[in-house]
């Protein structure tokens, strides 16, 4: 490819056809003069090339606006927390909690204190028999 035919601006802005783009890429690999010209064109057309850089305050406002816009909601955080796999330490903590509850159940299920005179009401019998106190 001849250096006169190379359209670096069209290549840079992506307006070339696919076949022309491939030829320009091959030419840039072999021609250092065109490669330097292309890199200079990129530097001139890059954002902020003329010294127009936003201030630190404007950059901070933009960052905070983007962070506020894309901040996850509580529902999204909870759904993500529930969807994650359970690590080993959480499984062990659940097992210890289950053992503590199982060991406390007999103490919670103690028999009621006896009625006056040391008698109990038998609630496991049918209705007519449960009324008798022994």
Q: What's this model, at a glance?
A:
The protein is mainly alpha-helical. The chain has helices at about 10-15, 20-30, 30-45, 55-70, 75-85, 90-110, 125-130.
Number of helices: 7
Beta-strand portion reads under 5%
The low-pLDDT segments are none
Q: Which structural class do you get from the secondary structure elements?
A: mainly alpha
Helix content: 55-70%
What does this structure look like?
The protein has 134 residues and is mainly alpha-helical. The protein has a domain of 38 residues. The protein is built from seven helices and no strands. α2 packs across α3. The chain is rod-shaped. The termini are far apart. The model has no long low-confidence stretch (mean pLDDT 79).
Q: Which descriptors would you attach to this protein?
A:
single chain; mainly alpha
Chain-wise SSE layout:
Layout: H1 8-13, H2 18-30, H3 32-45, H4 56-69, H5 74-83, H6 88-108, H7 127-130
Helix pairs in contact: 2-3
């Amino acid at each position: 490819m001849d250096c006169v035919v190379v359209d670096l601006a069209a290549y840079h802005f992506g307006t070339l056809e696919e076949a022309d783009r491939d030829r320009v890429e091959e030419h840039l690999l072999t021609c250092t003069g065109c490669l330097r010209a292309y890199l200079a064109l990129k530097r001139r057309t890059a954002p902020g090339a003329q010294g127009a850089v936003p201030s630190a305050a404007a950059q901070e406002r933009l960052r905070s606006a983007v962070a506020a816009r894309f901040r996850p909601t509580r529902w999204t955080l909870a759904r993500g927390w529930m969807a994650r796999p359970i690590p080993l330490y959480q499984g062990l903590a659940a097992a210890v909690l289950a053992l503590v509850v199982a060991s406390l159940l007999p103490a919670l299920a103690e028999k009621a204190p006896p009625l006056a005179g040391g008698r109990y009401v038998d609630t496991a019998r049918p209705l007519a028999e449960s009324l008798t106190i022994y």
